[in-house]
Amino acid sequence: MTAARTTGVVTDGGRSDRRESRGAVTETLMPGWLALTASHRGAAHEMNGLPNQDAIAVRPIQPDGLVAAVADGHGHHRHFRSARGSELAVAIAAQAAEELAARLDDFEAAGQIEADVLSTLVPAITGPWRAAVQDDLAGEPFTIAEEEARAFGDDPLIAYGTTLLLAITWRNWLVLTQIGDGDIVCIRPDGQALLPVPGDPSLDGRQTTSLCGPRAEQEFRAAVVNIAITPLLGVLLATDGYGNAQMADPWPDAVSSDLAELIGDSQPEWLAGQLPLWASRCASSDGSADDTTIALLIAPSAAALRQEETRRQQQATVPPAGEFPAEATQATAEPTALAVADTPAGPEERLAKSAASGGAEAPAADGAEAAAAGGDVEAPGRAAGGDVEAPGAAEAGSRRRFAAIIAALRPGRRGGGDAGGD
User: Which residues of the chain have pLDDT under 50?
Assistant: First the structure.
């Protein structure tokens, strides 16, 4: 298995180095938000000699905010320059988001910001992205082989097709927008997941809306969260290679619960070391086999919020003095006799287990070609970008599920093992 490329970022007194890459990034913004990211090439892409078509960019906004952009270039053969398309998307989106962040103090309500995102920010992404694609094409015209991969009448933009997830944190505002598949999961102090961005019923796992589509501006969705009213521990942005690897369905609540505990109990340096392992597990043939990119944004007040929530839960569950149930009293007097296998799993153990993968049914048309390309079949006017066929996966007629996002446990904790192996 090829390891994800990793880069560390050294910070000094609130000044943050900025990295835009396909590897892992740690950005520290003191005393503001922390961004941990990782990206790994999918097993199907590795088997077929395709690059990692995901891209990610994180930029600080002084004094205490940040911008994070994640893009998933489509795997279908018609999108043969989607790796470039995703890189252009995150760079352009991050720049446009910085410009919006500079104006956020002018707004008083979340609805005003959301309207501005759709009317101003989105066109500031789509227009420059199209222009950047044209510039790239002018500098390097399609080769003969690339021309042969194009469908008759394809707009050149299709070759660069990509999704985009974007988050802006600034003071009390969390601003989110998205086109295409992938997931944005907000993590509450009690571990519950908040999914503020509206869903897109047109996404079916094989087709996705895209920046290369003719109606891209209309297909963006947006949401704004006032974190002074709705406190959050963090935000997870992930390409669909991550979500398609999860065994739980739906998975956001389970993952949010475990991440809340880990954010509260772990040092950021430990979490930063785990993200490349999470991404590689999900991208493996036991997971989705698709490129997997994760950005975990941790709020500056995360530790305090988690401690407060833990105290609240403990106070709510402890009975008054002298009213402990008899079975509880007996249990405290007896030695623990549970075997390791019977001990309830903690979040690290749960997240370190993997399950056998079932392959998705092949599309009726262009199915073999799409599977060979590591992508999906494209319908007219819609870009292909969802699941990919995992090498050696069993045919089970269901989407792949993969329970692991953490492959190594902290020293001193009991390990839960890895059923899937490498």
Answer: 1-21, 23-30, 324-382, 384-422
pLDDT digits (tens, 9 = 90+) for 24-49: 444 444 468 999 999 999 999 999 99
Task: List % helix, strand, coil for the chain (3-state, nearest 5).
Answer: 35, 20, 45
Q: Residue 224 belongs to what H/E stretch?
A: strand 221-226
Q: Which two tokens stand for residue 107?
A: 């707004």
Cα separation, 312 vs 275, in Å, equals 29
Segment (H or E) for 68: strand 65-72
Domain extent, residue 297, equals 19-307
What's at 197, amino acid-wise? Answer: V
Q: What is the C-alpha separation between 35 and 274, in angstroms, rounded?
A: 13
292 φ, ψ to 5°? -130, 125
**101 — phi, psi (to 5°)?**
-60, -35
Longest pairwise C-alpha distance within the chain:
82
CATH code for position 52: 3.60.40.10
Q: Return d(Cα 95, Cα 131) in angstroms, integer.
A: 15
Question: How many folded domains does the chain comprise?
Answer: 1
- In sequence order, what are the beta bridge partners of 215? none
Element of type H or E holding 164? strand 164-170
Q: Is 372 exposed, middle or buried (0-12, 13-18, 19+ CB in 10 A)?
A: middle
The SS3 call for residue 66 is: strand
DSSP assignment of 363-396: PSSSHHHHHHHTS-PPPTTSEE-S--PPTT-EE-
**1: its two tokens:** 């298995």
Q: How far apart are CA 138 and CA 131, in angstroms?
A: 11
Residue 2 in any domain: the answer is: no
Q: Quick check: helix, strand or coil at residue 70?
A: strand
Domain assignment of residue 33, yes or no: yes
Q: Report the SS3 class of residue 352.
A: helix
Q: Exposure string (b/e) for 279-300, b if CB count within 10 Å is 16 or more?
A: bbbbbbbbbbbbbbbbbbbbbe
Q: What predicted TM-score, i.e. pTM, was given to this entire model?
A: 0.74
pLDDT tens digits, 373-383: 334 333 334 45
Q: Is residue 373 in some structural domain?
A: no
In a domain, 409, yes or no: no
- Give residue for tokens 């269901």: 398
Stated as kind and residue range, the H or E segment containing 186 is strand 183-187
